[in-house]
Amino acid sequence: MTAAQRPVPAPDELSAPYWEAAAAHTLVVARCSRCESYVVPPGQACPNCHTSEPMFTFERVSGRGSVRSWTVMRQSFLPGFAEEVPFVLVDVELAEQEELRLIGRLLDGPDAPLRIGAPVKVAFEDVAEGVSVPAFVLGEESA
């Protein structure tokens, strides 16, 4: 019997540039063309300036940030993660903008020395042929 595969993203027209960049191990974030705020995930309107015509562009970001919160997943709610528990999900505020947040796996594992404010940097998990998902690893303190 083979193990269940992890679910993979199903990009739509709005999110396709994000997932295409992730496949190339590059982190990009949508940016509103009107107010220049970063937005994750992009929607039909900008949550900052409320325009219904945000004309999002995707811009490369540093991938550096700090841990706001985390949880250790000890139970798999999807069969594709059963062999990977326990694992850590971190809520990261990216350095580019206050409240610009991404949630991803911490690849350092459940015994990593985590704390609120811990610096992290983006890494990528290759989950299928041509499909990568942003994740994080603990980084160094910024000078």
UniProtKB/TrEMBL annotation:
Domain ChsH2 C-terminal OB-fold: 60-125
SUPFAM superfamilies from the UniProt entry: Nucleic acid-binding proteins
TM ranges: none
InterPro entries in the record: ChsH2_C (IPR002878), ChsH2_Znr (IPR022002), NA-bd_OB-fold (IPR012340), Thioester_dehydratase-like (IPR052513)
Record-linked Gene3D superfamilies: 6.10.30.10
Limits of the ChsH2 rubredoxin-like zinc ribbon domain: 19-52
Family annotation (PANTHER family): BLR3430 PROTEIN
Protein name in UniProt: Zn-ribbon domain-containing OB-fold protein
